[in-house]
Amino acid sequence: MPQKKLSVRIDGELISALEGQTILQAARANGKRIPTLCDLEGLTPVGACRLCIVEISGTDRLFPACTTPVQDGMSVTTVSPKLTQYRRVSLELLFVERNHTCSVCVSNGHCELQAMATEMGVSTVRFAYNYPKLDVDLSHPRYVLDQNRCILCTRCVRVCAELEGAHVWEVTSRGIHSRIVGDLNQKWGDAKGCTSCGKCVQACPTGALAEKGWAVEEMVKKNDNISSLVRRRGVQA
Amino acid sequence: MHEMAKELLDAGERDFIDQVIASKNERPGALLGILEAVQEHHPHKYLPMETLEYIALKTRTPLSRVYSVATFYALFNLQPQGDNTICICRGTACHTRGSRNLLESLRLELGLALEDESDGGGADKILQTTPDQKFTVRTVACFGQCALAPVVEVNHHICGHANERTLQREIQTIERGSE
Ligand code: SF4
Ligand code: SF4
Ligand code: FES
Ligand code: FES
Fold this sequence. Notes:
The structure holds two protein chains of two kinds.
Chain A: E1 5-10, E2 13-18, H1 23-29, E3 53-56, E4 62-64, E5 75-77, H2 81-97, H3 112-120, E6 136-137, E7 143-146, H4 155-164, E8 169-172, E9 179-182, H5 199-203, E10 209-211, H6 223-233
Parallel strand pairs in A: 1-5
Antiparallel strand pairs in A: 1-2, 3-4, 3-5, 6-7, 7-10, 8-9
Chain B: H1 2-8, H2 11-24, H3 30-41, H4 49-59, H5 63-72, E1 84-89, H6 92-96, H7 99-110, E2 127-129, E3 135-140, E4 152-154, E5 157-159, H8 164-178
Parallel strand pairs in B: 1-3
Antiparallel strand pairs in B: 1-4, 2-3, 4-5
Helix pairs in contact in B: 1-4, 2-3, 2-4, 3-4, 4-5
The complex binds iron/sulfur cluster (2 copies) and FE2/S2 (inorganic) cluster (2 copies).
């Protein structure tokens, strides 16, 4: 069944979108970029990070572009002082929640959180840091999970469940205590379902999941590979 | 690992879980009901790891998913619960009426550790059980009975305007009853 064509305005420009697309998908298909963190092309969007918020004319509410479907005649604003303000706050809160010491992180210089902060002009954080005491799981022979750098984007959860089919990861607990767990809160090295494929590591936007053997600044992720794998396999998000 | 779950659970327990799963039968959201029924069935009202593992195996749910659900809802316990539960409200109304002191004195009374470093500074949910498994102390964020603040729930029965004396009396009654 051919999808219905819709016309949508993004930042004033008229584009055509397909029914069922999200605002983010429609924007991307037309070469427009919206800031994102938890989204990874090919995985089910979850709307966790709120970086992709956009304004829609006719309402005061802000909507996450990654989970909001386009509607015919919709007019979307993706850049505005108000949006920058909210995006900054979201980023600051992500920094506050964990221990992001970039200078000693394997992903320094290649981290999506850091890049986003630079892009949004976040150079200081106005809120008090939480300094939680968190684990670093070194039990896997090839990979490391450092909870201190995790932003709970759940990309690792989704790539492992949706693409690898192993579903090793989930989020446990809730609120400020939420964190990523493998199996029944087992060490990664003991996770029976893990095939050591490394997809979660490549999908992770920060230094929370990394390969062993890399020093500070050395871990470069290849998450484009994941999106192209999804396209090749025709997995539908 | 599945062998482990089978070995560690006795046959009766496994049969019960099998029955519960069969009765909830693949409906979406069934996992919640299954966990609830199985926890209720346990003499110490909790979900041991072997049980979670067995449920995951039988419902073909990823282990991490089962663990995630069991830790998201405050309803589920992963630790054995005491025979008696005392639940102190730490909501705003009860806090301003001294529920912190109430909690501290109750923990002293029962010989429980006061500040657990790992619980992040006192504002958090507390769940402690005495070594003899007689009492579990826990906190909630609000019972919705703020007019009666401070509110304490002893074995599912609400005591309004609680103070140290009423708490001591409740504990004595329980102790006496169990002798
Ligand atoms: S390495 Fe692969 S199988 Fe193992 S947890 Fe990561 S994504 Fe899942
Ligand atoms: S470990 Fe990485 S991919 Fe997984 S939730 Fe944390 S930041 Fe996201
Ligand atoms: S990318 Fe939309 S909420 Fe994270
Ligand atoms: S704050 Fe204690 S009952 Fe509402």
